[in-house]
Amino acid sequence: MERDREFSLLFPKGAKAEERVIISRKACKALMGNYLYHREIDLCDYLTTDEETILYRRELFCDLLEHSEAEALLRELLPLLKSMEELYRLRENSHHTEGQLYAIKLIELYLQFVSCAGDGLRKHGEAIRSSALLELRERIREIEESAWYMALRENTKALSREITRVKCVTVGMNLDETFSPVSFGVLGFHSRPMEPGGLMERLLGHPASDGLTALCPLKNTAGHLSKEEKHFADMAVSSALNRLFKSAMGEWEPSVKSFFRRETREFLPLIGELKFLLFGVDLLTELRSKGLPLCSPSIAPMEKKIFSVKGLYHPALGVPAKRLVANDLTFDEKGRLYLLTGANSGGKTVFLSSVGICQVFTQLGFPVPAKEAEISPVDRILVHFAGKTAAMDLGRLEEECLAVKALFGDVTEYSLVLMDEPFSSTSAFEGAHIAFDVMASLSAYGCRGVFSTHLHELVTMKEEINRLPRSRSAVDTLVVGMDRGGKRTYKIYRKTPDGKSYAAGIAGRYGLDYEELLRLQDEKQGGIKHG
């Protein structure tokens, strides 16, 4: 819906919230575990494909990360809004007098919110650069200078003074011959609270206080009155309050109606937005504190299908900056779909997740975990991370095929598809055959994607896929790097893999190469050499 009546820090004027699902919760969980988990909001709901909205948020995060005062102001405003939301709920479920009292407190909170926001934004106004905070400052200024707001503030102050002076209510009760209650009523109101006391103190002649003193120790109503008794007591007090403040509330009523007519809920949507912003600030501040690089990506139109990133890393690994292994990735005319191969535990899954997280960060409006980036939004992020097992399992293979087929129901040419070792539950021959059809179909759709695989037969088929008549996204290869000793470097290279090189390296590392095994045989046979 259009944000023309509700103020937003996340959407520029006239922008629309996304109605489509860019990434499912299940896919997000598979991609990054609980890294972006928030118990009160779902960050997937804040993803957007709109370039203007992404840039609008990027400005705001820059302000919040560079100016701690702006961040502190948002943290101060959030509990005020949450209290306002709760009072709206209580007011809607209360009787007249109680509702009026809730309204008074609600308006006091609203006045406090406007005053706090106005003072904070004016105080740090010179440092603010983001359109979102500048627009909030302007909206608050318009409210503060309006005649209805000034009247509301003055009327509320006067009424609050009258109401808050009531600290104690005296109640009278008529009794029959047996001292059973017959009727009761409120006798008066007092500006000082009743003090605890007792009958014995009175009988012993202890001096009375200047205020009211109970004849017996004070009791908490919650523990000594039934629900029905408390209800009747509340009704009696409310009725008396209504009579006491009737004239004052009558004068205040037009202000109340004006307040609620003027859509003063306009700031309540900021509750979720502030939670989102502060969660993002906390997450990004933590990365900065570790010395990890962050950059604001250049945003390219969706139709350009650009993803060009240097120094990409996985932000959830917790690796210090000096041990960070970063990689580069570019989708271009020679490769919009990549086959990623290499040794097990060589970093394929981490790299795949890094690509997805970078895209998610971009479309949340966050800076991204990289040194440089130019990225186009995508309409869907589709994820398939298969479990790994060496067992042959036809049931599991059928289930996986159904899941991948369902994925094709959502893919478009503007989607990003990430698949981690699919079809590993069947033989290499069968897996390569299925994977070929999947890759060829993804190419025909024209989308971007990374397909990590242990099926090296598939790599030899890439040119066959690229020659297909309906191929639109060129397939290229990425390889997990290893040093000469077979040690994993976690670097990703864009090149054609040698299907034997990494296996040979591992074999040599663990003493399973031909020369080493013959040496062991020589030792066992007392030094006999083999030609």
User: Residue-averaged pLDDT, rounded?
Assistant: 83
Query: What's the story with the biggest beta sheet?
Result: 6 strands, mixed
How are the strands of the biggest sheet laid out side by side? 8-9-10-6-11-12
- What general form does the structure show? elongated
- Give helix and strand order, one letter per element, not per position: HHHHHHEEHHHHHEEEEHEEHEHEHHEEHH
Summarize the structure.
Helices cover 47% and strands 13% of the residues. It has 531 residues and is α/β, with parallel strands linked by helices. The strands form three sheets. The protein has a six-stranded mixed β-sheet, sandwiched between helices.
Give keywords.
531 residues; alpha/beta; 6-stranded mixed β-sheet; 4-stranded mixed β-sheet; elongated
Question: Would you spell out the secondary-structure blueprint of this structure?
Answer:
Elements lengths: L24 H8 L18 H16 L1 H25 L3 H28 L7 H15 L1 H18 L3 E8 L5 E10 L8 H5 L17 H4 L2 H18 L1 H16 L8 H20 L8 E2 L7 E6 L14 E5 L5 E5 L6 H17 L7 E4 L5 E5 L8 H15 L7 E5 L7 H18 L2 E5 L3 H4 L2 H5 L8 E8 L5 E6 L7 H9 L4 H11 L7
Parallel strand pairs: 3-7, 6-10, 6-11, 8-9, 9-10
Antiparallel strand pairs: 1-2, 4-5, 4-7, 11-12
Helix pairs in contact: 2-3, 3-4, 3-11, 4-5, 4-6, 6-10, 9-10
What would you note in describing this structure?
Strand 11 (475-482) and strand 12 form a beta hairpin. The chain is built from 18 helices and 12 strands. Residues 388-393 have low confidence and may be disordered. Helices cover 47% and strands 13% of the residues. The relative contact order is 0.10. It is elongated and about 115 Å long. It has a 6-stranded mixed beta sheet with strand order 8-9-10-6-11-12, sandwiched between helices. The chain has a 4-stranded mixed beta sheet with strand order 3-7-4-5, with helices on one face. A two-stranded antiparallel sheet has the order 1-2. The chain has 531 residues and is of the alpha/beta class.
